[in-house]
Specification:
- The termini are far apart.
- The protein is mainly α and 148 residues long.
- It has one domain.
- The protein contains 6 helices and no strands.
Length: 148
């Protein structure tokens, strides 16, 4: 009964007065391992364009200057850098398959975000432009009508 409420003959266990510190070699191995793991993590994250886009969209605005975008084409880089903060949050929340599909230009993959190569202008403006180009390529037949 003595040990139930903290009394009794059981004393407090104290650690030895001298703690065993790791050797210098062990510290060096631990530093090298941590550095290797960080390098491997960076390398793995840089294996695909979708991972690079995900990393870019996931970091703070200031850290985006250091992002590795080496696997992206010029049009993909321009698309990524043109996205707003809200759009980048949407990209960061998407899975890698959707990001990859958006990079390939598939339509309607990411909510409210045009994919790479999609026209970001309103549809009626794009249609009006295509219509004017189509009309310009057709010769005007009114000039060929003979007067009676």
């Amino acid at each position: 009964m003595d040990g139930v409420f903290g009394g009794g003959s059981g004393g407090t266990v104290m650690p030895p007065s001298e703690l065993a510190l790791p050797e210098a070699d062990e510290l060096e191995v631990a530093r090298y391992t941590a550095k290797s793991e960080a390098t491997a993590k960076t390398a793995i994250q840089s294996l695909s364009p979708a991972l690079q886009v995900f990393r870019y969209a996931s970091v703070e605005e200031f850290d985006r200057y250091d992002a590795d975008l080496s696997l992206l084409g010029p049009e993909q880089k321009q698309w990524l850098r043109s996205l707003s903060e809200d759009a980048l949050r949407t990209v960061a929340a998407a899975d890698l398959k959707r990001i990859d599909r958006a990079l390939r230009g598939e339509q309607f993959v990411l909510k409210d975000i045009n994919s790479v190569g999609q026209d970001s202008r309103p549809t009626d403006i794009a249609f009006a432009e295509r219509l004017s180009v189509a009309r310009a390529s057709v010769p005007d037949e009114r000039q060929n009508v003979r007067a009676l």
